[in-house]
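Students often ask why inverse folding is considered easier than folding. One informal answer: many sequences map to the same fold, so there is more than one right answer. In these notes we will look at a single instance of the problem. The structure comes first.
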């Protein structure tokens, strides 16, 4: 680890700590846990494992900091967000390297994530200045009525491993801009990115207690967060199953929740689509982060009249993808995050093949590489009884299903409990509008495989959760409305 550590300014892999109340804690109450590089299966760091003790400390620190932070003007809070942003961009290659090492994202893509993450800080540094109230015409001449918006209070952000810095800034950017203070609980598969971010917070001289970052025993930390009356809102990105558990847990203290949960995105290639554009989009959507995104194309529906043409273009592009150790800047597809993720992909492919699917390319793990690698895979002849059509894959496998009519494909696309993202490729304006309106998903990529931007709302419907992150909508859940009636 010592040779590796020499690359970094923000974090020493041999000596990492939790960040609470502006201070580093190098011993966790629950011991330590290993962070494993999925490209090599080697332990790259031992991280202090926090639990109830650290969670209580973080909540208390955020509570003490709240009245100080929320009294700052929106411009003053925005100043700190921009300082964090500038430091992130200054160190984007280092942060990208850490992301790549700890969770396997291809290096170039990981650096791109840092830039994307910084965009949320830019947006909310400005959006915090636009938290407007209103005046209401009174029904009594002696009264004046007004509504103001104030910070919700202490908030908690529970972030996933697959976008370890973007999901963090997408949550705490609006929280801090609104005047809230925060506790961040990153995933144990990718804690080093969050701890490097904590160092940036320290360098930006953000007041102590405004951002606290703890990792470790998920159950204990979550219990403290959800039992606490101090924590007023929780934003969670993760699985639908855990999201439902958190809804139940929130009832005791009636916490506000934002939930960005699982997805099972349909990718519709209509008869009049630009096939080259659609195939390129499918590559980007499906194989980004080795298919480990909640909005990636999981079910690819192609009109039967263009199915062969699309399949040929799609396979040709997939076979050109460079798979390898994620830290290599030439690599486009890295490993799965762990053995469980690899096993799930293998089982879904085997189930599909057993039920009649054909492997067009890929279809096997890569034994010549040390880590959890699986070849970019395309399946044809896929039917609705295959597991891959009903369960989120979270891996580099693309099932192709042929269809004949728009009504048929919309029904198939909507026949899932999930409603996060969907993609439509067509050159007809009327079809584009009507199909987009009929799809039951919170995000539609219309001839666009990468619709996520900081200035637009991101979130799902049905079992994919509720609440929105990004856009002007993203700050609203961190605010409370207060009505003031004035007798004069």
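Output (designed amino acids):
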């Amino acid at each position: 680890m010592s040779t590796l550590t020499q690359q970094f300014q923000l974090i020493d892999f041999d000596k990492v700590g939790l960040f609470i109340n502006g201070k580093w804690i190098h011993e966790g109450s629950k011991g330590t846990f290993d962070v494993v590089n999925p490209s090599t299966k080697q332990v790259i760091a031992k991280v202090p494992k926090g639990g109830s003790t650290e969670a209580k400390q973080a909540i208390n620190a955020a509570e003490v900091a709240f009245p100080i932070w929320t009294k700052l003007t929106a411009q003053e809070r925005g100043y700190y967000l921009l300082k964090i942003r500038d430091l992130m961009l200054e160190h984007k290659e280092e942060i990208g390297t850490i992301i790549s090492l700890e969770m396997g994202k291809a290096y170039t893509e990981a650096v791109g994530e840092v830039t994307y993450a910084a965009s949320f800080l830019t947006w909310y540094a400005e959006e915090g200045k636009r938290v407007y109230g209103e005046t209401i015409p009174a029904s009594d001449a002696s009264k004046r009525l007004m509504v103001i918006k104030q910070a919700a209070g202490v908030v908690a952000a529970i972030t996933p491993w697959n976008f370890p810095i973007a999901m963090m800034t997408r949550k705490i950017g609006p929280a801090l801009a609104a005047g809230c203070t925060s506790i961040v609980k990153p995933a144990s598969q990718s804690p080093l990115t969050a701890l490097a971010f904590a160092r940036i917070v320290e360098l930006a001289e953000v007041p102590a207690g405004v951002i606290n970052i703890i990792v470790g025993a998920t159950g204990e930390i979550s219990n403290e967060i959800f039992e606490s009356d101090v924590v007023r809102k929780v934003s969670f990105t993760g699985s639908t199953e855990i999201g439902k558990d958190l809804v139940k847990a929130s009832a005791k203290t009636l916490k506000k929740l934002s939930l960005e949960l699982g997805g099972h995105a349909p990718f519709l290639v209509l008869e009049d689509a630009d096939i080259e554009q659609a195939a390129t989009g499918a590559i980007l959507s499906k194989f980004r982060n080795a298919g480990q995104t909640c909005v990636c194309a999981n079910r690819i529906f192609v009109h039967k009249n263009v199915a062969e043409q699309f399949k040929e273009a799609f396979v040709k592009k997939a076979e050109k993808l460079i798979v390898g150790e994620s830290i290599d800047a030439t690599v486009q597809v890295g490993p799965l995050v762990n053995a469980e993720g690899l096993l799930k992909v293998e089982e879904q492919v085997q189930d599909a093949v057993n039920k009649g699917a054909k492997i067009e390319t890929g279809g096997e793990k890569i034994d010549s590489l040390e880590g959890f690698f699986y070849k970019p895979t395309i399946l044809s002849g896929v039917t609705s009884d295959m597991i891959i059509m009903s369960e989120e894959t979270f891996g580099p496998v693309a099932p192709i299903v042929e269809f004949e009519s728009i009504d048929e494909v919309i029904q198939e696309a909507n026949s899932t409990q999930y409603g996060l993202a969907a993609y439509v490729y067509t050159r007809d304006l009327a079809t584009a509008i009507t199909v987009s309106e009929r799809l039951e998903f919170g995000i539609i990529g219309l001839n666009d495989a990468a619709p996520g931007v900081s200035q637009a709302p991101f979130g799902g419907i049905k079992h994919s959760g509720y609440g929105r992150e990004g856009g002007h909508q993203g700050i609203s859940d961190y605010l409370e409305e207060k009505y003031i009636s004035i007798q004069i």
